[in-house]
Amino acid sequence: MKKTDKQGINHERFIPMPGINRFYERLEIAMNGMSNVALATKCNISESAIRSYLKGRSYPGIDKIQPIADACNSPMTWLITGEVDATFDEGFAKYSETELSLVLGMMTDEQRKILVSAIFEYGVSGIVSALNGMAAVTDFMRLSENERAQVLRVYEQIKEGASQGDSDAAQRSLTTNKRQAG
């Protein structure tokens, strides 16, 4: 096979190990709010490489994974595979099992089934994203009934592709209603 032969190249980068394929989720958890730039600086890796890892487009090489694990204060084995090495920090593992048992014990069988299903279907980062979305819903619900109605009217007009004149009328209506509410 020649170096330029495209037929012999495997373009799919899927690794048949579920733990490895969710690396990006664990990296996001391990970063714990650390910026991409901060992690890149600590590991001497480009910020674009970190971004690529977080999007699941690529995986770090063996020479990069240890510095990433060190910078994130995470076990390298967990970061790579998702498996917890109980010998790494046995006290932490026991504490975590106890806490998990306590939480699961307080849940109904149906709630446990739903939680397990959600973890398998969406992963941890998907659940966290959904919870963050709930914060936006909570903020919306804190608006007065009049303000919620106004927001929904404007949303419907935008969704229906309202003309510029309708948008201006909606804006005037929103301003007028704010003055009346205030």
Could you explain the architecture of this structure?
With 182 residues, the chain is mainly α. It folds into 3 domains: 18-85, lambda repressor-like DNA-binding domains (434 Repressor (Amino-terminal Domain), Orthogonal Bundle); 114-141, no CATH class; 143-182. It has helices at 18-21, 23-31, 36-43, 47-54, 62-72, 76-81, 90-106, 109-141, 145-159, 164-181. Helix 9 (145-159) packs antiparallel against helix 10 (164-181). The mean pLDDT is 74. Residues 164-182 have a biased composition (Polar residues).
Quickly describe the structure.
It comes from Dickeya solani. The protein contains 10 helices and no strands.
Question: What labels describe this entry?
Answer:
434 Repressor (Amino-terminal Domain), 10 helices, extended
Fraction of residues in H or I helices: over 70%
Q: Rg from C-alpha positions?
A: 24 Å
Distance between the termini: 76 Å
CATH class of the largest domain equals Mainly Alpha
What is the count of β-strands? 0
Q: Quick one: overall form? A: extended
Query: How many domain regions?
Result: 3
What is the structural class? mainly alpha
Task: Estimate the strand proportion.
Answer: under 5%
| Average of pLDDT | 74
CATH architecture label name of the largest domain: Orthogonal Bundle
The CATH topology of the largest domain: 434 Repressor (Amino-terminal Domain)
Give the full name of the CATH homologous superfamily of the largest domain. Answer: lambda repressor-like DNA-binding domains
Number of helices: 10
- Give, in order, the helices and strands: HHHHHHHHHH
Low-pLDDT residue intervals, each spanning 5 or more residues: none
Q: What is the makeup of the main sheet?
A: none
